[in-house]
Amino acid sequence: MKRLLHVSDLHFGRDRPELLPPLIDTINALAPDIVAISGDLTQRARASQFKQARDLIDSLQSPVLVVPGNHDTPLDNLPERIFMPWRRYRKWISTDLEPQVHDPEWSIIGINSVNPLGWQRGWFDAKDIRTVEQGFADTPDSAFRIVVVHHPLEHLPGERKKLMRGADAAISALARLGTDIVLSGHLHSWRADVFASAPTEPAVLQVHAGTGLSNRLRGQENDFNLLTLDGAMARIDRYVGRDVAHFHKEQSVVFERGETGWRAIEADNRP
Questions:
Q1: Percent of the chain scored above 90 by pLDDT?
Q2: How many domains does the chain have?
Q3: Which helix (H) or strand (E) holds 146?
């Protein structure tokens, strides 16, 4: 059994500082095998904001895998955004924009979906698909195959933000490569489901985290996900910071993996 904690869109610089201690305390109390942060650590990619993100990462007792988000490139410095978009990210967070973790029970592949010149809209291109393919090349059939990316590959109807370029082709390719789960953020809304707009076989599970700390909420509370992966089962627990004292488990969904991929078998959506 493996446990992965997924948090996204911390947005230091436009965060709720009162939620930071309970977020750190709850993550450390859960003691996951790894923490995956799917981008937008900062609001404006400023050094002070990256330092806050660095301090949070250093406060976590579990290993951490991070990919950047579109807010992690400098919006207010056009020359740097064009020629050195990742200078500050590399200094404070990691020189590796697409980290990977491998052991006999899972392979986790980070993909940088940010287009520095596109600001908000991301992309998932042929190079990214090759990165995933190479990353999964030696992954045992029994192991979980997980991709972490900032921009979602699917939006619900009515979403105002533009879907990333190459999304449908990426979903098909990821299914072909045996991907089990895609973790993403960006929309500040929670979701756990199989891809529906570009259905695949086997069915691939998508898990969106909302925002861990930002005060820019879209009708949902600040949250993160805890994934418990065991054999053919995946349980996604959503933890919500409704008050400033702690994050607590709000809802759970259990998925089962069969010959046609993932399907939901149990849901607890109690408020």
A1: 83
A2: 1
A3: strand 144-149
